[in-house]
Write a structure and sequence with these properties.
Length: 60
């Protein structure tokens, strides 16, 4: 193989690996941020239930 072919092949491989790494990293970050939404929802529900228990006004 010529030097140019080796350089092109190496550059293509590095580009592919970099792209795959970037996509996986982006997916991990998105998954983490989506999970934080679940955590906030659980906290919000717990706070709502606590407010219902602490409220002096009773609903019938």
């Amino acid at each position: 193989m010529s030097r140019a072919a080796k350089a092109t092949f190496t550059a293509s491989c590095l580009y592919a690996v970099g792209t795959i790494w970037f996509v996986h990293r982006a997916q991990d970050q998105e998954r983490a941020s989506m999970y934080q939404g679940v955590v906030r929802d659980k906290e919000r529900r717990a706070q709502r239930e606590q407010n219902k228990r602490d409220s002096p006004i009773s609903t019938k």
